Amino acid sequence: MKWMDEFRKLLRRVRDEVPYLSPPGGLSCQETVELLFEWLDEELEPELDERVATHLESCARCYPLLTFERAFREAVARATGNEKAPDELKERIMESLETEGFRSS
To answer: What does DSSP assign to residue 60?
Structure first.
């Protein structure tokens, strides 16, 4: 298949000539998803916060997850009347997670 060989050559040439385009905000989708909850909770440093926001605003793959998480949080807030869980509950959950091998960062 001569056309397929020519196509492969063309793809190689384009790949070598066109500089790598970095993902939005300089973060991959995986990195962004791993930071999503901290971003929603406004727990990130300003520079990283901006990078995550940039990625989420322009990534067609990550934006639906952001939309879902926001809607989910709003539904939980409505159902609980925005009541916060007691600090003791958070401590017990963190202890249980650590017992299971999870470490907080």
So the answer is: T
CA angle 95, 34, 94 (to 5 degrees): 5
Within-domain flag for 104: no
* Closest-CA residue to 55 (of 19, 27, 93): 27
For residue 16, count other CB atoms closer than 10 A to its CB.
7
- What was the pLDDT predicted at 19? 47
Up-side HSE of residue 23: CA atoms within 13 Å toward CB?
17
The pTM for the full model equals: 0.60
- On whether residue 72 sits in a domain, the answer given is yes
pLDDT of residue 14: 55
Tell me how crowded residue 32 is: count the other CB atoms within 10 A of its CB: 24
**Structural domain boundaries, residue 14:** 2-99
pLDDT 10s digits, 45-58:
999 999 999 999 88
Report yes or no: 72 and 80 within 8 Å, Cβ to Cβ: no
